[in-house]
Fold this protein.
Amino acid sequence: MSKKPAKAPSRSPAKTVSRPLAQGRKTAMQKPSKTAAKRPAGPRPDDTPERIARALEAIAAHLAATIASAAPALDLNAADAFVWHPNGRLSTVPRVSRVEIDLLKGIDRMRDMLIENTERFANGLPANNALLWGARGMGKSSLVKAAHASINVARKPADRLKLIEIHREDIETLPALMDILRASSFRFIVFCDDLSFDGNDASYKSLKAVLEGGIEGRPENVILYATSNRRHLLARDMIENERSTAINPGEAVEEKVSLSDRFGLWLGFHRCSQDEYLAMVTGYCSHFGIAVAEDELQRDALEWSTTRGSRSGRVAWQFTQDLAGRLGVRLSAK
């Protein structure tokens, strides 16, 4: 009668409940280790070159498809002047911005030599690539465009020279342009304005290979004309740096200076005299019908050149534009 049966049932449920809790704690402690064990292994190092190769092939295929779709059928009969784009496209230039060749004063010798060289090339005779270098604003690029126009004046459409401008930053694509022009029946002047190279720029090697030295070389129906303010197409400090840092200074400089040597015709442009500058101004005013007393014209033109700090064909043209604007004269030939 002294036993208490209520205590026995209370002990067994407590023990039964404690076992699942203990197992739950044990399972929770084990889960992170199982998850860490199932973490996927990283890519094997041996797969890296293969994956890079596949990615490069995909990029190359995409670029080839883009260039092919961007380059329409080429019609060289559409114009006499074109601009080359690095995606393989030639865009037409319906009207070339140029100066009449008779208005180019103070560069008579260079004018005659370039026209003679261009005429020989247009007639299928041997001619040289030309480098026009020297003072700013003295008509280097104007002479190239004027010579092209003067040669085409009396030519039939099938015999006309084509002028193609390639920008300095696109010079690495010059071999691709040569491949396009090589198969054409036309003859081409490939023109690069303000050509020069700085620092570690290695794109000049593409130009060297096209001028001379490459397996294919320059096509017979292509000639290259370039203008530059630098005689050797390189900055003076760049040449001096090559001399001071190279093991063999002579060879280091020769590698880069040899580019200008591959132009067979060098035409140097120097700063004009006062009389030549005034002749340029007078020629412009006569051509465009600007009527001003000679004494007044010369006085104003000299004052303009003094404020600019130089005398050149470009300065003479800028003065003519200002004078025509003040007098209300439109710059169209009489």
About this structure: The first helix runs from residue 7 to 37. Confidence is low (pLDDT under 50) at residues 14-18. The CA atoms of residues 29 and 302 lie 96 Å apart. The chain has two domains: 81-269, 274-327.
